[in-house]
Amino acid sequence: MKLEGQRYTIWIAAEGWAPGQWTPEDDNSDAIVTFESGERWVGTFFSYQNILSLSAKNQQTGECLGGKYWVATDMILVDEVSRERIEEVVAEMLREAEFETYFARCWEDEEQDLL
Length: 115
Fold this sequence. Notes:
Layout: E1 8-12, E2 28-35, E3 40-47, H1 48-61, H2 63-67, E4 75-78, H3 83-95, H4 99-102, E5 104-106, H5 108-114
Parallel strand pairs: 3-4
Antiparallel strand pairs: 1-2, 2-3, 3-5
């Protein structure tokens, strides 16, 4: 089904966090895009700074070979993890027909794990 041109809403996990826990310049958050057709797609937005912070943390904890690598599925890198930026990126990816490349389709049994 063609996604471009459909109305959609965006749910951002970080918007449900306690006040002060969301730092757009140094954070990551799942975002679920729900189209009027009912299709849901998920992507995880990371700020560039958050990747550096996670690497530094992993160097201390030993995770990911002591910070030597980092992986995440459906990862989208942005300058800040904010509603404004996520909305801009989603709109751009839909315009450029890139959305389905970088977001993953949510199936009903997976959705409850994300919410």
